[in-house]
Every structure is written in structure tokens, then in C-alpha cells.
Amino acid sequence: MIADILPAAAAAAESLGPDPEPDPGLFPAEAALVRTADPRRRAEFTAGRACARSALARLGLPATPVLAGRAGEPRWPAGVTGSITHCAGYRACAVARTTDLAGLGIDAEPDAGLPAGLIESVAGHAEQAWVVRQAAAAPAVCWDRLLFSAKEAVGKLWYPLTGRWPGPRQVTVFPDPAGTFDVQVAGSRLTGRWLARDGLIVTAVTCPGAAGSAQRE
């Protein structure tokens, strides 16, 4: 599912269904990161790292520990950028060489409305009004959850590039029903893509690498 909204330069892996048992298949250094976490968190971490290894293999790279930075972001091998996401019943990873894509963020969410009151904390007035209009005109997807997911994907792209995690009100997103979304963040403009299927919403946003061979998807 996630591969359908990524540029050709990215490699992706995903899995569905219950999370695997925690810890099997982790490198010792990875297991140490979640040693004191509860079983659910360890299972999510294990599933995400399994997807990461599959995605890296599709880039022709060997299995290696994927540790975490100061904000919990995945730390990729030199010359690689990527993102991991998980929600109930789904987890995915996407990676690319930085010569192709300088940054890459993905997110997955259930296609269900946000909890009451959350939209006000993640969206500006114009975005909230847009959500209301879209919900009335085309209720095929939960537009508030899509907006939230797109902002999560933008944050996952932005933090590794800048060392700053933008607040949701610092990112402006307007999704297009055709499956794209326009982003404004810190004076920069990006374009992402989204897909809703099988009870899930997935979003992805990228920016070109040094080679300039990838379009902003």
C-alpha cells in the first residue's frame, strides 16, 4: 500500500495483521533501546525494524542495526534516508539513497475520525474550515485524520533535515481529493501523496536529493 504513493527512487516494505512477538530478530543494540518498554511497544518496535531490514535489502544494503536519535527518529546507514510508521494492524518502512531523496516521511493511520477536540490543536482555522467543507462534500475518507497523518509525515521528513520538529500548527496542509496534498512549512513548499484503502490512510512526502532525479511527490 505505501509503495503506491512513493516515487520510484524509494524502497518500501510493509506488513499487516497482529504485531509479532517482541524482540526476536532485533540486534542487541536495538533490543537495548526497548528493554524497559512495555510488551506492546517492544512488539511495535520489532515489527518496524523488520520492515526496515526488508526495505534496506531492496536498496541492496545489508542488515544493520537501526538505532534511534535524540527524538526517537530512526538513524539510518550513511547515505540513506527513511521513515517508519505503524498503527493497529499495519506497519511500514520506506527508505531511499540521499542522492535520490534528501528527505522522506511516511505515516499510517486508521481511517477514523480524530478524537473530539484534537483537530483544534493540529489545524489552523483555514484548515479546519476546509475539513468541514470536504466532510460535507466528499465523506469517502476521514479528512481530519488525513490532515493529521499528512502533518505527521511532514514532521518525519523535516526533523532529520533540520534538527527541529515543527509543531502541527507550523505546518499548513491542504489535501486534494485526487490523492495529493500541498505543504507549507518554514517557508518551504512540498507536495505529498495520500491513499485511503482497507480502513487505513497512508501519507508520504519527499524532497529531492543531490542528484535532483526525484520529483517532489
Task: State the main characteristics.
217 residues, alpha+beta, five-stranded antiparallel sheet, 5 helices, 10 strands, globular
Can you describe this structure?
29% of the residues lie in helices and 31% in strands. Strand 9 and strand 10 form a beta hairpin. The chain is globular, with a radius of gyration of 17 Å. The protein has 217 residues and is of the alpha+beta class. Mean pLDDT is 92; it is low at 212-217. The chain has a 5-stranded antiparallel beta sheet with strand order 6-10-9-8-7. A 3-stranded antiparallel beta sheet has the order 1-5-4, covered by helices on one side. The protein contains 5 helices and 10 strands, in the order E-H-H-E-E-E-E-E-H-H-H-E-E-E-E. The two termini are 16 Å apart.
Layout of helices and strands:
Blueprint (H helix, E strand, L loop, with lengths): L10 E6 L11 H6 L5 H20 L8 E2 L5 E2 L4 E8 L2 E8 L3 E10 L7 H5 L2 H13 L5 H20 L8 E6 L3 E6 L2 E10 L2 E9 L9
Antiparallel strand pairs: 1-5, 2-3, 4-5, 6-10, 7-8, 8-9, 9-10
Uncertain runs: 212-217
Q: Distance between the terminal alpha carbons, to the nearest Å? A: 16 Å
Structural class: alpha+beta
In sequence order, what are the helices and strands, one letter per element? EHHEEEEEHHHEEEE
Largest sheet: 5 strands, antiparallel
Average pLDDT, all residues: 92
**Beta-strand content bin:** 25-35%
Shape: globular
Count of helical regions: 5
Report Rg.
17 Å
Helix content: 25-40%
Structure summarized in a few sentences:
The chain is 29% helix and 31% strand.
